[in-house]
């Protein structure tokens, strides 16, 4: 970490070597020291190297009055370097942590802007990585959290890359001084009420007085933990491959896992596999809330347990666990009459229904199960719908939203269930396209 700031261009170019064929490099440019140095380095390299097209993005949060002058500063810097700039204004949602809300708004904007084949370059450095490690350690994070900020990860349609993670803040300051650069000093960076600022201004100076290489060694520990997390993810993929057998209800379009393949694993491997599976879907539970998984896993065979998480729910049915989110968590309102001439019927919060073949004489109506329904079947007489659903092992969370086709008080068909969907008569068929998952932005 002791190299001269003069070495920075060659070190940066080496770190960016795998990404030289990207469609474009877009720089997250706040106007502060770190991103100013990154922008200057890239503009300098572009004069002698064949690089992807460079452009910068400045996100304006509007959280403090002084920030209103920053976009103009960023424009002047970019203009002097011959780099185009896009200024994006975002709305920061109120919440317990202003830091986190601003970060989420910023990365949501980046995600929307970065296109396929493009790379967003951000200027986090070695000191930032050390602060991240200590901050997360104090919050009780596991291996995933303690691995720190990844050097690269998918972002929107492209990728995010942090090419300065092996560079210290002192090296960036030395480079900026040598080059005579000017940058924005954000007043909020001095506010000790923010946890990261407290660590930066109060804790790390004391650590560095005793252990001068503290940031470098902590960043190295984060790299070791990132490698360990990679091994855990490989193990999770192996365990999930066995649990990802096809379900006869694949037409639901829901993610599910076979429970039996998970329960024979150790509890640590169960949590590891489920964490990997859930990570793209929801904020992961803390240690205390993993008892919800044990309750769901160990419930009696005839129970319908539910584990409620931040962004959805896990249900257990038919020997599988199912992820439900979005529309699946809202009971569908009454569907109403079916217009026989319509080719499809959009069901509120419940997908789309279609009738194919020779449509039965009307008037027809779509309803949902309330209990006590009876259906006449060729050669079998009248049968309780509940028993018919039990025979086919229809998951309990599906039963209340399966579309039922009625003519008057006569139940004609149950969508998607062979033999009950009208196909027994051979002349028509009731097909339901369930609602898609609302995954949101993770």
UniProtKB/TrEMBL annotation:
Any one GO molecular function term: ATP binding
Chief subcellular location: cytoplasm
GO terms under biological process: tRNA modification
Assigned EC number: 6.3.4.19
Domain Lysidine-tRNA(Ile) synthetase C-terminal as annotated: residue spans: 364-432
Binding annotation for ATP: 30-35
Annotated catalysed reactions: cytidine(34) in tRNA(Ile2) + L-lysine + ATP = lysidine(34) in tRNA(Ile2) + AMP + diphosphate + H(+)
Entry function: Ligates lysine onto the cytidine present at position 34 of the AUA codon-specific tRNA(Ile) that contains the anticodon CAU, in an ATP-dependent manner. Cytidine is converted to lysidine, thus changing the amino acid specificity of the tRNA from methionine to isoleucine.
PANTHER family for the chain: TRNA(ILE)-LYSIDINE SYNTHASE-RELATED
Protein name: tRNA(Ile)-lysidine synthase
Gene symbol of the encoding locus: tilS
